[in-house]
Amino acid sequence: MVEWTDFERATIQDIFSRIDADIVGPAALSRCLIVYPWTQRYFGSFGNLYNAAAISSNPKVAAHGKVVLSGLQLAVNNMDDIKQTYADLSVLHSEKLHVDPDNFKLLADCLTIVVAAQMGADFNCDVQAAFQKFLAVAVSSLRRQYH
Amino acid sequence: MSLTEKDKAAVKALWAKVAKSADAVGADALSRMLLVYPQTKTYFSHWPDRKPGGESVKKHGKRVMGGVALAVSKIDDLTAGLLELSELHAFQLRVDPGNFKLLAHCIQVVLANMFPNDFTPEAHVALDKFLANLALALSEKYR
């Protein structure tokens, strides 16, 4: 059972209420596909991922970025049992999507960088630590049903 | 994943924009690393304090970014250019090389935070490769 301090709870709720999910989701996913191009392996049906410009303007990438962020919102709404909340999603990623779970961390790092760019001075050390802890829990829960 | 000419150009272009803030970037990145990845504090038990923004952290952040600046100037042959620093890290400091990517991540978070318009996805991928190659050159002499 993950222990959250009051500061961490408040910080996570604050971040997610402040960021524009429709911007941050697509930005994080396209950054991941650009910075770690091997992650493109999961998106063969998305069309043109040939270069950074194509990825950044690809509508399927944008749509999927929003899906990913709404998945994270689920965790934000259930911070005291992310493991259970993500059980089905974990099975999906393992059994159906066959995603190498090491990739989750890559996307998490890109999300951190995009949020850092959005929040400016408010994204201080303590806020970053809380955010990365939250993402680590989400990633760990998403990995849990892999066998 | 070695650096292409395009990567090197992108790194130099980004560095030109951020170099004058290098000390601040270093201090902030190091502060974040020590807080977000507390296991990294184990290397600094000899400091009077490890608090984010403290004097020891600021001084060391400046030194680290001096190393990054050196690496940018030696970008065409990082292994040769960072030989002395590699020997320092291998034989005296003995920092586990797994930690280099933690600091690299924090440097990138700080750059995104301080220079959101310059740290584009294209600049990000070039810098990520550069820092990975820098870490490799730094670990060259380990064994």
TrEMBL record, chain A:
Can you supply a Gene Ontology BP term from the record? hydrogen peroxide catabolic process
CDD domains on file: Hb-beta-like (cd08925)
**Keyword terms of this UniProt record:** Heme, Iron, Metal-binding, Oxygen transport, Transport
Q: Does the keyword Amino-acid biosynthesis apply?
A: no
Q: Which SUPFAM superfamilies match?
A: Globin-like
What one GO molecular function would you report for this record?
A: oxygen binding
- Which Pfam families does the UniProt record give? Globin
Domain Globin, which positions? 3-147
Q: List the record's Gene Ontology CC terms alphabetically.
A: blood microparticle; haptoglobin-hemoglobin complex; hemoglobin complex
Which family does the similarity line name?
A: Belongs to the globin family.
Please give the name of this protein. Globin domain-containing protein
Q: Which organism encodes this protein?
A: Oryzias javanicus (Javanese ricefish)
TrEMBL record, chain B:
Keyword list (alphabetical) reads:
Heme, Iron, Metal-binding, Oxygen transport, Transport
Entry-linked InterPro entries: Globin, Globin-like_sf, Globin/Proto, Hemoglobin_a-typ, Hemoglobin_oxygen_transport, Hemoglobin_pi
Q: Which GO terms describe its cellular component?
A: blood microparticle; haptoglobin-hemoglobin complex; hemoglobin complex
Q: Which GO terms describe its molecular function?
A: haptoglobin binding; heme binding; iron ion binding; organic acid binding; oxygen binding; oxygen carrier activity; peroxidase activity
The Globin domain sits at: 2-143
Q: Which family does it belong to?
A: Belongs to the globin family.
Stated name of the protein: Globin domain-containing protein
Native organism is Oryzias javanicus (Javanese ricefish)
